[in-house]
């Protein structure tokens, strides 16, 4: 019997060694960013069996066989749709400024999506303004309303939006609603799905979370986009989920969430509508390609504000928004202001920010003083010393959880959307951002950023260097796993 146990022990050890070797080879041959590979190897070796299971669940960008095949079949028809935008008078490449052209060329070559002029934009920076405006537009809708959000949390004005959608559906408006399964878990457990479906609203749960799917699809890939399109004429996008902050995560100890949304009219609306149609088809298999923008007239000379819509995520070109961020940072000549709730930059972004500060650019990073993610909070701190030494100004906002994702470059152009400055947003989730060349809109966003800074505490480099050894140790521990956060 002892001999049998000995054989079983050696067989178990050999099986474990083969599993470790196989996963290690898989990590090495994937040829990802070195930091990501090293972080996974650490997890695999430090947590023997759990590390292997974790890698099988979360280690690779696996959207699932059905969705992957569906996305592959969608490339050609959607590419043909985007190609039609080049015949629209809203496509005016000769009017592009020097800072606009590199981003446009990148998106044209990798996504097939051009920048378009002739748009009108309104910056909405309070939840009441956003939700009231959305309710008003829903009440005036005649044909179709398409929505997708990461989080829909019942309560307050969010319930008024739900009521407005139900009434719209009852009067014959076609309403399609796509919500992330994990982010909107509270919504799907509420009475609202039943009421909506009874009214005729098409409601789809994106990327359903289930133990049965864990080995078929990576469960932490999330639908993080926030898009609303009404009658193919009005669109909303930005950082805000469909929540009333007075009723959302009130016990988290971080204060109310601070967000912005952009209300857009013009040809860029059709591009956002097409992205929503892409997400709907990936999830349901149903195709609803929207009409291309009405292009029967050239935009007036005073209406040349340009928007480049940039989607990212599984099935789309890798790191596209990451590349746009790098281009924007390296183009800065005077001033760069970034707001983000989660700051865990890639090595390339970190070096770009340091390089900008070292060449004399005034670089500001505004983040929340309190974060709802402890791991992200400590990982973020691990980058502060290097940034502060280079001259980057880091501000910690005290008025709640600053959730606005924005970049203003030289007070002349900006990026705004759903993308956090962390690895999850840049490489994993479904996201969308707008590159905006609109001096008036950019000035409004820059002014809002300055309001954030007024309500923030700037980190003093000398005091930061005096933090405790225990804090430094925790920062470095979480820094080692930052590529996976």
Automatic annotation (TrEMBL):
InterPro entries: Cardiolipin_synthase, CL_synthase_A, CLS_N, PLD-like_dom, PLipase_D/transphosphatidylase. It comes from the Bacteria. Its EC number is 2.7.8.-. Catalyzes the reversible phosphatidyl group transfer from one phosphatidylglycerol molecule to another to form cardiolipin (CL) (diphosphatidylglycerol) and glycerol. The chain crosses the membrane at residues 7-29, 35-58. NCBIfam families: bac_cardiolipin (TIGR04265). It holds the Pfam family PLDc_N. The active site is at 224, 226, 231, 403, 405, 410. Its main location: membrane. GO terms for molecular function: cardiolipin synthase activity. It catalyses: 2 a 1,2-diacyl-sn-glycero-3-phospho-(1'-sn-glycerol) = a cardiolipin + glycerol. SUPFAM superfamilies: Phospholipase D/nuclease. GO terms for biological process: cardiolipin biosynthetic process. The gene is cls. This is Cardiolipin synthase A. The keyword Lipid metabolism applies. Residues 219-246, 398-425 form the PLD phosphodiesterase domain. GO terms for cellular component: plasma membrane. PANTHER family: CARDIOLIPIN SYNTHASE, PHOSPHOLIPASE D.
């Amino acid at each position: 019997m002892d001999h049998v146990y000995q054989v079983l022990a050696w067989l178990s050890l050999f099986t474990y060694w083969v599993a470790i070797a196989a996963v290690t080879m898989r990590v090495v041959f994937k040829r990802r960013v070195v930091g990501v590979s090293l972080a996974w190897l650490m997890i695999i070796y430090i947590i023997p069996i759990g590390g292997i299971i974790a890698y099988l669940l979360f280690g690779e960008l696996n959207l699932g066989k059905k969705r992957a095949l569906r996305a592959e079949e969608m490339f050609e028809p959607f590419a043909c749709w985007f190609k039609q935008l080049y015949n629209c008078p809203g496509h005016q490449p000769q009017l592009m400024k020097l800072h606009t052209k590199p981003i446009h060329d990148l998106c044209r070559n990798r996504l097939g999506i051009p920048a378009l002029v002739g748009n009108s934009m309104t910056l909405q920076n309070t939840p009441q303004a956003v939700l009231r405006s959305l309710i008003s537009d829903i009440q005036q809708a005649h044909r179709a309303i398409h929505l997708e959000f990461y989080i829909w949390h019942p309560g307050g004005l969010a319930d008024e939006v739900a009521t407005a959608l139900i009434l719209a559906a009852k009067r014959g408006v076609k309403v399609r609603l796509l919500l992330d399964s994990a982010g909107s878990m509270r919504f799907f457990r509420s009475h609202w799905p039943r009421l909506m479906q009874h009214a005729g609203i098409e409601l789809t749960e994106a990327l359903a979370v289930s133990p049965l799917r864990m080995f078929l699809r990576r469960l932490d890939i999330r639908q993080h986009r926030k898009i609303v399109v009404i009658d193919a004429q009005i669109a909303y996008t930005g950082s805000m989920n469909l929540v009333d902050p007075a009723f959302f995560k009130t016990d988290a100890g971080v204060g109310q969430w601070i967000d912005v949304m952009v209300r857009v009219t013009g040809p860029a609306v059709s591009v956002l509508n097409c992205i929503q149609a892409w997400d709907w088809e990936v999830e349901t298999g149903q195709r609803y390609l929207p009409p291309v923008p009405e292009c029967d007239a050239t935009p007036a000379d005073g209406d040349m504000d340009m928007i480049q819509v940039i989607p990212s995520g599984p099935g789309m070109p890798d790191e596209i928004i990451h590349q746009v961020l790098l281009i924007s940072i390296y183009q800065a000549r005077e001033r760069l202001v970034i707001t983000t709730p989660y700051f865990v930059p890639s090595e390339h972004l970190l070096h770009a920010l340091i390089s900008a500060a070292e060449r004399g650019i005034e670089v500001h990073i505004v983040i929340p003083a309190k974060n709802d993610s402890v791991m992200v909070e400590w990982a973020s701190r691990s980058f502060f010393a290097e940034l502060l030494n280079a001259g980057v100004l880091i501000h910690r906002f005290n008025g709640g959880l600053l959730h606005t994702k924005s970049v203003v470059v030289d007070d002349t152009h900006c990026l705004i959307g759903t993308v956090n400055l962390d690895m999850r947003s840049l490489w994993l989730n479904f996201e969308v951002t707008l590159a905006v060349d609109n001096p008036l809109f950019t000035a409004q966003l820059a002014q809002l950023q300055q309001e954030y800074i007024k309500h923030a505490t700037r980190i003093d480099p000398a005091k930061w260097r005096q933090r405790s050894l225990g804090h430094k140790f925790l920062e470095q521990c979480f820094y080692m796993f930052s590529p996976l956060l």
